[in-house]
Amino acid sequence: MRVQNRGASGSGHGWAGAQTMFWNCRSTRVDIMVQSPAAARNWGVGNIALTFAGNGYFESNNRHVLPRSLYLAQLKDRLGDAAVNNITLPAQRMGSISTQLQSWAGEGAFNP
Questions:
Q1: Is the residue at 109 inside a domain?
Q2: Three-state DSSP class for 55?
């Protein structure tokens, strides 16, 4: 997982992002890279990885934080519990469905 200045990287596109938040992510490879451009900030909060690199803002490395989902917390603040219930499964609200997603692997209907 990387938000960084990709320089030319063959296409000349430069920065991968600005104002980017990695929240409660888990890197299954080696590291999480969070670099910030001069006029912006990128963050990594509550992430788990073997190493962390970059000049971005890091907090709570190798320890997930609450709320579990920043997106769902913001949605609830803006539109209430009904909005969250409309876009999530009960299993998601109670924990994680990553094991079920791995088993499903995009084949057929998802039925946790």
A1: no
A2: coil
